[in-house]
Structures
1.
Amino acid sequence: MRLQCFSRPTQAKRRVTMSDPYVEAWERSIKDPNGFWGDAAEAIHWYKRWDKVLDDSNPPFYRWFVGGELNTCYNALDRHVEGGRADQAAMIYDSPVTDTIKTYTYRQLRDEVALFAGALADRGVVKGDRVLIYMPMIPEAVIAMLACARIGAIHSVVFGGFASNELATRINDAKPKVIVSASCGIEVKRVIPYKPLLDGAIRMSNTDAQPQSCIIYQRPMETAPLTPGRDVDWKEVVAAAKPADCVPVAATDPLYILYTSGTTGLPKGVVRDNGGHAVALNWSMKAIYNVDAGDVYWAASDVGWVVGHSYIVYAPLLRGCTTILFEGKPVGTPDAGVFWRVIGQHKVRTMFTAPTALRAIKREDPRAELMQKYDLSNFYALFLAGERLDPDTLKWAQKALKVPVIDHWWQTETGWAICANCLGLHAYPVKEGSATKPAPGWNLQVVDPNNQPLPAGQIGALVVKLPLPPGALVTLYNNDQGLIKSYLEEFPGYYKTADAGFIDEDGYVFVMGRTDDIINVAGHRLSTGAMEEVLSDHPDVAECAVLGVEDDLKGQVPVGFVVLKAGVTRPHEEIVNELIQMVRDRIGPVASFKKATVVKRLPKTRSGKILRGTIQKIADNKDYKIPATIDDPAILDEIKAALVTIGYAQGRR
Ligand code: COA
Ligand code: AMP
């Protein structure tokens, strides 16, 4: 097959052939969203058909499948049990950290979910109630999510690597009736007790937001004492429960809230609806990943992140695939061959992970020798996202795996890929550094600060013309104005991705980096603003800046710069250690905040704006111009010297 490059009709030069299924799908999705998504919705089971596919009567708030009623859990489980997949594996739990492999058929998973849904109902959870899930990568986390969907409750999963304080902010916002947690998680070298973190978070949270009860799954490696009157044991409540049936919900009812870092310490509660989400995710499995019912699909992420929500839990199950729930790391559990072992052993067809995971493997096994031990003949494609895919990692993976290695770009807010090489529609040649083309449904543009389109090749703000396709965020929890302020105000008529980039002459999209203070650390999205808020709380700190500097393994890591208050004479090392501990305690170990330095002053413009971009360039050994607006250029030498003391700005590392 001769592969050609076709561009979508952007400002870029057009070379369109109507026989390309990708081009046809993209154009139809934009010109006729009602027809396009209406057709896709036929693959979903509805209790009541929708009155309208796209309700655009109240911009900038758009709704999909208005008037329709469905149940996401029914579509993910019961439908397949009734449709002949009852004995097919729905989920394989592969946990090298506990030496466990356990398979759940669709029937078994449906039955366990129905029982836990009954247990939630016994604790008073009804449609519309929030249930917060703070769990490691164990089957009970997936069961709890689907059980919420079954009875119309809204789940909010919080990643296990977040500290009590972060958990408390989410409890305050979501006001969960019940929290579901486990006694512990397991990291490479240690067991992490979850219960003290949970107890701390509940203590810190507002009284009116605290849960009526907590259901705790006790793991054998560390059991947790239960708080009488509030905590109950998972196994006991399930033993006493009766299975609950699926409750029909409106297509526009919320399925879940997922908090993500914003530009302040307060995370944003991204709300996903039921109808649009089910339609888009089910459709994406074939169109983007080229996966069919019965295939084995593995997203090596965590259910605490959007990738885990969309592609460990909902999309593969909606499609009737077998999903893998992996409790381990790419290295150290036990070695850098574990990904290949899982692919071989479970006959994985398509895998999805973050580039950082491959960099970790490449560092330990540069020639991919461990891969040779496994039969990867079923493996069809590797998809990567979460951060920019660097060319070295792309080439390494292509050479070692000999399958398509596909970069695709998306965000917690979007729920699925904005740009991808849609293998189920048309496989395009891969261009290094590009996430290929906008997926159907996404009318992506590159604009200047005045919202004017930029020509091909020119970097600007990546924005998406409204309406966003189904499956994207519908609002922020209890905060419609927040949606407008954060995403819709700056470029009227468009969704601001807060990523910068360009589209080339062939219509390929290149995502260059964030335009705000968000950084990506090992594929985890974090706010440097939130870290600055923590550092500012230290009694000796007068001012501070945190920025992301390049890291060979994690892509970026945060580095802090602090100016001390006049008269502070304590050893700097002591203060820095306290700052590192504060970030770990208040945000969590996942922040990977391990380096900070004391400086006499911070470089600023004459109007007082800290020159973060310049500091970043110095740290990353990049060329930089001394900004014309800087109040004192000599400060840059001081910053460089400070960076050298902590291992940066030393020429090529
Ligand atoms: N619960 C508790 N602690 C956690 C945690 C969890 N669920 N996840 C991570 N942590 C801790 C880690 O133990 C580590 O603690 P430490 O500072 O005491 O060592 C810290 O948070 C940082 O974790 P991480 O960034 O994951 O670094 P790592 O060195 O342990 O592992 C990688 C590095 C690259 C192997 C790992 O980050 C990885 O697999 N990344 C892939 C990310 C991913 O899938 N992202 C989703 C988007 S697709
Ligand atoms: P998250 O919400 O955690 O999924 O993080 C979203 C952010 O990660 C995006 O706004 C991008 O900055 C970055 N990102 C995700 N995927 C890619 C990609 N394929 N290429 C470049 N950046 C990416």
2.
Amino acid sequence: MNVRMKTFPLLKPALLSVSAGLAFAVLLGATSEAFAQTTAEQTAAQRAAYQPVFRLDGGNMTYAFGVNERGELQQIYWGGKLGAGDAIPTPKAAMELASFDNSYNNTPQEYAGWGQGLYMEPALKVTFADGNRDLVLHYVSSNKPDENSLNIVLKDISRAITVTLHYTMDPDSGILARAATIENAEPKAVVVEQAAAAAYSLPPAHYTLNYLSGRWAGEWTLNRETIKQGQRVLESRRGSTGHQNNPWFAIGKGDAGEENGEVWYGALAWSGSWRITVEQDALDKVRVTGGFNPFDFGYTLKPGERLETPIFYSGYTHHGYGGASRSLHRFIRGHVLPQAPNPKTRPVIYNSWEATEMNVTEPGQEALAEKAAALGIDRFIMDDGWFGQRKTDHAGLGDWYVNKEKFPNGLKPLIDKVKSLGMDFGLWVEPEMVNPDSDLYRKHPDWVLNFPGRPRTEQRTQLVLNLARPDVRAYVFGFLDKLLSENQISFLKWDYNRNWSEPGWDQLPGDQQKRVYVEFTRNLYSILAELRAKHPGVEIESCSGGGGRVDLGILRYTDEVWPSDNTDPLDRLTQQDGFSRAYPVQVMMAWVTDSPHWLNNRATSVTYRMLVSMQGSLGIGANLNNWNAEEMATAKRLIAAYHKVQKTVQQGDLYRLISPTDGSEFSATESVSADKSQAAFFAFVHSTQEGRSFPRLQLMGLDPAATYALTSIEGKAAPDTPAEATGAWWMNHGIDLMLRGDFQGAAFSLDKK
Ligand code: DGJ
């Protein structure tokens, strides 16, 4: 396999050149020559004589760290941009406050080894072959691989373990990408038991932690809690990202709100088991450490081997939670997505899952395709059920040949039909899974994650293929490559419908088997990279029973994600709000499905459902055979209207004008195009009570001097609303909407004259 995965540099090389002329990575007092190797024998005087300080500037952020008098790398500052000429002080290790509050524990190290009396979360913990587990990392050298990047080499005070810390600053957004490479130059193997990508520190203050939690069909719940002493652990032990926690955080200071106040935020780019700890120490300092989940971790590094951690991105804003998410959205669109920096807008799609489930047939899908095309849909996607002996979820996974009973002439007739209707064709796959009732499992029962002689726990009657194995990787790449080579497929919906159990890899010696936690995910990424390279026209969605695999790792290889199997529009309003804290609407697929909804048995109008989904990347997932002429006409009209604001919604700046998470019966979002020439806004009421009016909406992000014309996509503004007015009017005076009833929505666009 000669496909290079995206590792370092941490931004795409093409973008690094954009930074010319920006005040980036001013290395104060540092040179790129190697600092004399730090050893136990080195005197304090020698160390004090060479204490470099490093400063990274980007967007509105400055990040600074340096070497303290002991030789440790210590964070100095993370916050709003400092003056270009401001002197950054050389860091001093914290004082020992008491024997129980020692200096090593209190010093905000950039990347602390577990040793010396560290009780905070270590960034790195190892066991050497002789049983020594003390690791004390001191500064060795720095180098600057390019204008926006900086590498810092640390080494243990006596053992040949080195850590290279990688820093890449995005000059526009100020989003910092950090990762670490751990290398064993000892004569014997070393077991890495814990490896973070980075640790970030904040000084004592009153902070509020924001994080996302959930479950299947209930992803994207925004939680807000005061940070108190002790640890809040956000994690997945499941082998993949998980529905339960998402690897994102935002920390607001004091009374930071949606559009004001200081917010520090971050996201981990890893789709395997992960952990972020947010910890306030006994002296009230806060440390955020993120990387591989140390639970059951044990990566044996043979002499000369390295382990690269995922990237842990971070950013800062003084524009509140809204400012934080807008910045992250822009960064993801511009630097993370496979089509960055100019990802195509997501087409309006039709997906067959809720209409037919696994009962897919050639005539059935063709009938749906005709209806979808009549609505103005761009892409038709056939979901689960087309392959092997797949009739229910009890069989077929692993056997990726077309089911001849359902498609006697293969996929070609359906694909031809879809294309003749003016749409492109997408297909569902679940490549990492196998049903015990499949030809693949009967032939290769050893290919699944398992511990020999132990039960194999099934979930949805399926087992997880051990993608870390080279033969399994070859099989998975092989069948996908064949499928894409033999059929005109423009899109894959890549599903993943269970978490791990019995994560054994018995082909390896016992001390190597835990590598599965790293190699599985790396092979997933490399398959995606290789498929994209070989089939550049194909787009891919990451799905995991809804939103179980959404993170900045998978988003380097996939164009969009399926946020939740819950498509109830009322639930979607809060889910979309939570999702948008971390991820851009560009990647958030939002289907309109049938009513009453299968999950909550709630009935809503097609208009309401359409408007909710039009805040994201719109799709239809309903059984169109059951829609009447009026519903079809409404959907067609709103799809046409969506096309006019599609780029603004998907790629504009998002303002959460009224968040449904505030317990309000009202909610509203607004998107403004990058050039401020267009805005689209959506407003919803759950249930009007006592005749209350919808709150006046003061729009945001417009050009105050420009004149914008108001167009209704759906719903009415108050009769005295001007047909056109300046951005200043729409932002300061605002707009009153005539919006009352149960589950009602309205949408408008503002177009610059
Ligand atoms: C879970 C996905 O989230 C659904 O959209 C659908 O594709 C099913 N899997 C198919 O089994």
3.
Amino acid sequence: MKQSLYDQFIERYGASNQPVRTFFAPGRVNLIGDHTDYNGGLVFPCAIEYGTTLMIRPTESLSYQLASTNFDLIAVLSADQANRKYGDHWINYPLGVLQQFVARAPLDGGFECLYSGNVPNGGGLSSSAAIEVVTAFAINSLFDRKLDLLELVKMSQRAENDFVGVQCGIMDQYAVAFAQRDHAMQLDCQTLDCEQIPLTLGDYRIVLINTNQRRELSESKFNERVTETQQALEILAPVSGASQLAHVTPEQLAEHRQRFEQQPELLKRATHVVSEQQRVRRAVEALRNNDLARFGELMFESHASLRDDYEVSSDALNTLVELAAGTQGVLGARLTGAGFGGCTVNLVHEQQLQHFEQSIGDAYQQRTGLSADFYQITPSQGVRELHT
Ligand code: GLA
């Protein structure tokens, strides 16, 4: 029989008179609005049921013990050792968060913890944000730091920007923290105004397909896109008055496109961000009007823009979206998250689910030699303590 996580915790760390507490943070899927968050734009994510569970217990000794059921290594670190990055190891995510707390005030004790995640790895479903946010939430609670959830979100994002070295926006950490069951959130990443919108999909279901394609150079290419959009903004800010690229209007971009003569690729990046901002608005509007067909069209348009203008798609992702477009009962499909591999998100009629999985799975395997994984998801709740 499979050992419970609690049993594994006790087997690893032994019994003590301190309570073991359990926390959970989900992964997320972004329904539309990618690469807009770090440009001050709109996004529309929801949380998924898959996520990271963290069992944690305080210790008197000032050391940190970190283990995961997903990886072999166990780390036992002094405060000094916890203050640096370890290659591209997963412990960088909790350590980056820990550093954020310690920078404010040292912790008055240590902890031992065990993580266990079931977010498909490398799927672009924010498994790393789930680790960051569950760690921040747990430390805040364990050491009675009394920071509010938004502060924990910002600390988690900073851990990723400053410690891990990915210049991500705030979408993933925010979604993982604030998600509500059966809702998706329209988040303005500049003002952080957030509107929870009921995800009423009638006979349709959200299905994720993992390409299972290895993501290569995704971090460096991600940072390259961040830089490119900053450069595009430098060109457009003086003539548009916008302080964020997502606030440039399509008309302003059209009027000033000759400014990009020397850098056509920057024009393409700007075209994606400016048009994606409009698409999020329209998609949310369509949802409010129960116009799922329109929502689906916008998903396809978003994918095309990420593929052609933002150039963050891959052959595997394009194959899955193309196959979905030709399958009965599919209203929309697009890559979700950063791209460069990972998952597509699809809007599929419930009566076609079996056919969808079978026919796309087979055709994908034939075309790419890869086998895809399918996950039907319902929007779930953000970070929380589990009282088992
Ligand atoms: C990654 C980043 C997010 C966001 C998406 C693309 O998931 O972590 O901040 O930029 O890519 O929308």
